Amino acid sequence: MQKQPLIYWLKWLISVVFVVILYFRITDLHAIHFDIDQLMANHWPLVLLSFLLVIVNWGLEALKWQILLRHSIPVQWFDALKYVLSGVTLGFITPGRTGEFAGRMILLPEGKRLQTIVLSMLGGIAQIIPIVLFGMFISVFNTFHVVGQTIDIILLSIALLCFVVTYFFFNRCCEWHWLRTYLLKIDVSSAILPTLQQKIVVMAFAFLRFGVFVLQYALLLKAADIPFAASFAPIGWMLLLQSFSPAVALLDLGVRGNIALWVFTAFSLMNNSVLAAVFLVWFINLCFPALVGYFFILQWKKQNSLNNVAAH
């Protein structure tokens, strides 16, 4: 009962910040509404399909989260979706979506929250692997490079190796005494970590989700008169640079837009419609899921969290 007022004030804080951030994001959208209106008027089937893929995108993420939680807190897919979308909401109102980890935990019972941090880390590593792999592929077969073809491939190969080893040998790493000491109260026992088979399934969903994300961009860029074949390389570089740019974690939207502007200009594909398409993908993949997650947070109650988990 003592913590109930804290939940109440947290809801109010989240509500105020969410409404303010959403207002500014809609204002950003209004600034390029003419180009977005043209996309929707001239190519509405492509825009509609890209919008519908938002459901597939976050549905796959919910499947990933459900599998990762299986040994810690067995939940149904819809419950996993609520946790994921709550994370999107807090990520939406924090720089670089840094609050997404916390957002996935707040609907969970108190005794289970900390141990899901490592599970969320695993899910994040799984999602970055297809981005790096795709970056390596376009580095080999494309003339555009950030530093140079050889250096880009070497750096991406090292990054890919580190992510793959960390992901698949994470259970072994958690057995190191110094790591257990560093993580303090966070449960990293093998009993809550996914098995190798489950990691492979999570990885498969990560690749599918990455494919859906690329397809969303390709569809809207097609609406902006960029052929599918010409769009994949700049999409890959844009996602890769956005994922590894430290400035994104601080400024998020502005840096993402500048990276997209730089990459598509380098490919001689930049125009107002392309900028509108890139922004629209970001908007529909975050703003609408964040709005749904916001309503889940409004229903947040300590007792409900405990009861939901107990029911499973």
Set out the fold topology:
Layout: H1 4-31, H2 33-42, H3 44-68, H4 77-92, H5 100-105, H6 110-113, H7 116-141, H8 149-168, H9 170-173, H10 177-183, H11 196-223, H12 228-244, H13 248-251, H14 253-266, H15 272-298, H16 302-311
Helix pairs in contact: 1-15, 2-3, 2-15, 3-4, 3-11, 3-15, 4-15, 7-8, 7-11, 7-12, 11-12, 11-15, 12-14, 14-15
How much of the sequence lies in strands comes to: under 5%
User: Shape from CA axes?
Assistant: globular
User: Percentage of helical residues?
Assistant: over 70%
The residue-averaged pLDDT reads: 82
Order of helices and strands: HHHHHHHHHHHHHHHH
| Main sheet attributes: strand count, strand direction, barrel closure | none
The poorly predicted ranges are: 303-312
Overall SS class: mainly alpha
Radius of gyration: 20 Å
Please state the oligomeric state of the protein chains shown: single chain
Helical region count? 16
Query: How far is the N terminus from the C terminus?
Result: 24 Å
Number of separate domains: 1
Question: How many β-strand runs?
Answer: 0
Explain this structure.
- By secondary structure, this protein is mainly α.
- The protein has one domain (4-311).
- 79% of the residues lie in helices and 0% in strands.
- The protein is built from 16 helices and no strands.
- It has helices spanning 4-31, 33-42, 44-68, 77-92, 100-105, 110-113, 116-141, 149-168, 170-173, 177-183, 196-223, 228-244, 248-251, 253-266, 272-298, 302-311.
- Helix 3 (44-68) packs across helix 4 and helix 11 (196-223) packs across helix 12 (228-244).
- The longest helix is centred in the N-terminal third of the chain and has 28 residues, at 4-31.
- 37% of the residues are buried.
- Mean pLDDT is 82; it is low at 303-312.
